[in-house]
Amino acid sequence: MCDRQVRQFVMFLLLFAALLLAVGMMLGTAYSHAARALYLTRSAEIASALLEQGVSESVVATALQSDSTTQEGTHLLDLLGMTEQTPAALLPTLGAFRWMMNGAVLAVCAALVCFLFVGTLCFLRTRRAQYDRAAQIVRRYLDGDFSIWLPQNREGSLFQLFAAVEQLATVLQAKQQAERQAKEQLKTTISDISHQLKTPLAAMMMYQEILADEPENTAVVREFAVKMGASLRRMEGLIQMLLKIARLDAGSVRFVRQEVTVAALVQRAVQDLTTRAQCEGKTIRMEGELAQRFACDPAWTAEAVGNLVKNALDHTEQGGSVCVSWSCTPVLLQIKVEDDGCGIAPEDIHHIFKRFYRSERTLDTPGVGLGLPLAKAITEGQGGLLSVQSEPGQGAAFTISFPLTQS
Fold this sequence. Notes:
With about 400 residues, this protein is of the alpha+beta class. It has helices at about 5-50, 55-65, 70-80, 95-140, 155-215, 220-250, 260-270, 275-280, 300-315, 370-380, and strands at about 260, 285, 295, 320-330, 330-340, 385-390, 395-405.
């Protein structure tokens, strides 16, 4: 399919062809009229010369109307020098006729060539301007400026090329935006990590100074050794979570699906949190069909469920409870973690899956804001979905949904 400029140039060429045909017909007609006039003029000259020599009119008329050639006539013309090799300029009347017709043909041909040249030049200049404009826009793309776009939504191979370049530019723009976002995210992550590590490091330095000042005081050594151990465990947990998230972001985690019972999976997820719940006066309940099975990566999925349970314990008061339940529909396997804690404020619920996000209402609770993002990344990495429902003061419910069609 040709674009508009090519169609216009083709129409111009068709017009030129029609004009050339018309001019050819006009030249043929003019040549015919000129030849007839030349023939009549020459016949009149011959008749006049014969009549002046006393030749009768009947003989002249017979001679002019004759269309036969004799040897005597041919021999006479040879004697007069009128042969096929005789230059046209030496033949009576023919020289002027030739110059007149040749001049007319040359003039018409020159006009047609100029017309064709001007039309072709206009097409090429328009095309060149379009190419230069496209090259300028592409150079701006290379410089990261996408404020101007190449012409699109037109017919023709040129605009198909423009559309392909636009697709490439869109990919380039998206890549640049992704790189900028990645840089900003890395900058924010480094800042958050620095902030999270600063507190336990500062505490450990202070504890070390106290221990150095009172090495003989057993009670002080024991007290601050415990505090240093708590700070170290906090740093260890932070670093482990960061490493897990980094592996997920880099795509280096390969989820290995295995057929497991949901009960065994949940038990694996909460086994390290049961003692904590008992010490804090909280309970963890499990509800669901014990024989229910589904395919997942047991280790990573238990990590996700464990982070949800840990988050529920962090936001549940003494005497509260956390319930881990599961159910199955023809298309989904759902694991729900519910608590009866303080709930999530409406202004926070859309941010809780962001890394290092901490609500101003929960700054006094443990955690660094990585458990929920890690659980979300693990769930989505296996083709699942993590959602949340909550009302302030009425607890929260996190639901992991796995499509059974992907099992």
